[in-house]
Amino acid sequence: MAKTTDRMRPRQNNLTLVKKRDIGYICQYTTMRDIGRELNRIEKFYQNLLRVYPAIQRRIRRWRDQFPPKSDRRSNRKIIVNEYQPEGSSRDTLKIGDMVKVLSYSQIRCTLNDRGVFKNLSFQEPMKRYCNNTYEVLKIPQFVLNNGGRKINRCKDVVILRGLYCNGKGMMTHEGCDTCCLHYWKTDWLKKMV
Amino acid sequence: MTLLSYLIFWKNKGKAKFGRGERVRISSYEKIRETLDERNCYEGLIFMESMAKFCGGDYEVLKEVKWLYDEYSMKMLRCKDVVVLKDLICDGKGILGGRDCDRSCSYFWKKTWLEKA
What residue spans of chain B are helical by DSSP H? Predict the structure, then answer.
């Protein structure tokens, strides 16, 4: 018998992906590809133009971070990452309906690494405007669909606050996205109000 | 930039607009069901079962969706006649088999399913 070569085998990887997509989790998030169409040349050019200004801002900020103010210079931020707990943050278990205060940006920034990430959760630019304000806890996610429905992720110490939508500005890859997702917040960035 | 945006969106000039903060009424479930096909879709947009409880109510418009980021194909997409309403969020019950999905995405609504209140 002739051995089956790689070329003769059916493409199993693609088949499994299609099966998962069609039979598995069906919601508006997983079938987003059917709602819209691909961009034409003008739209692609427009999208690239939108990304220029935030990219310049990002580079300026990265350059400015090399010369931190005196107060930050004493504490080496690279060592602190993932171990530092900002003053007043609550690691207590939060419940749905609790009122919570978001810490100031200077406090939150101490937890972030060079890429603006804390425990695999990024702190995005549009989240800055919600600092120093109180909000209500809407949901405490445990299992979350990710990668367009290919993956289920488990969340830990993450909270969703009511009415804090993403406006799609300052994104790396998708500037001007209108899907209005809700922001995710680590409990270390929040303080429980009594 | 304004010229480019005018070039892209000139097709939508004559159509009904739902601005931010406008009050909108979702039409009844029977009316919406007439527009759906076998897969419960209208122009590719699924009408989920959990959306039925909001039919007939008045809600506020949050945003008109023009650009979408599809995480499956990692591409930006162009969208038409879709609106997001305020505080209408997917509860994700029973989506992951026995478990619930807590992603809490906001629902998409086609303009044909809505009326001005």
Answer: 2-9, 29-35
* pLDDT at residue A88 tops 70: no
B102·A181 Cβ contact <8 A? no
Give B24 to chain A, closest Cα distance, Å: 18
Q: In this complex, do B5 and A46 lie within 8 Å of one another by their Cβ atoms?
A: yes
CA–CA distance from A126 to each of A105, A164, A165, A188 (Å)?
12, 10, 9, 18
Q: What is the pTM of this model?
A: 0.80
* A174 contacts B104? CB cut-off 8 A: no
Which chain B residue is nearest to residue A180, measuring alpha carbons? B106
Per-residue pLDDT band at A14 (split at 50, 70, 90): very low
Distance CA A29, CA B103 (A): 10
Q: Is B106 exposed, middle or buried (0-12, 13-18, 19+ CB in 10 A)?
A: buried
End-to-end CA distance of chain A: 76
User: Is the separation of the CB atoms in A167 and A126 below 8 Å?
Assistant: yes
pLDDT (0 to 100) of residue B5: 65
Nearest CA-CA partner of B82 in A11, A31, A135 = A31
Instruction: Give one DSSP letter per residue of A113-172, joined into a string.
Output: -TTSEETTEE--GGGGGGTT-EEEEEE--SEEEEGGGTEEEE--SEEEEEEEE----S-S
pLDDT, tens only, A118-156: 888 999 888 999 999 999 999 999 999 888 888 888 888
What letter represents residue B111's amino acid?
Answer: K
Q: Is the dihedral of CA A96, B63, A38, A171 positive or negative?
A: negative
Q: What percent of chain A has pLDDT over 70?
A: 75
**Three-state SS for A191?**
strand
At residue A81, does pLDDT exceed 90?
Answer: no
Which of B108, B114, B103, B87 lies closest to B44, judged by CA?
B108
The residues facing B38 across adjacent strands are none
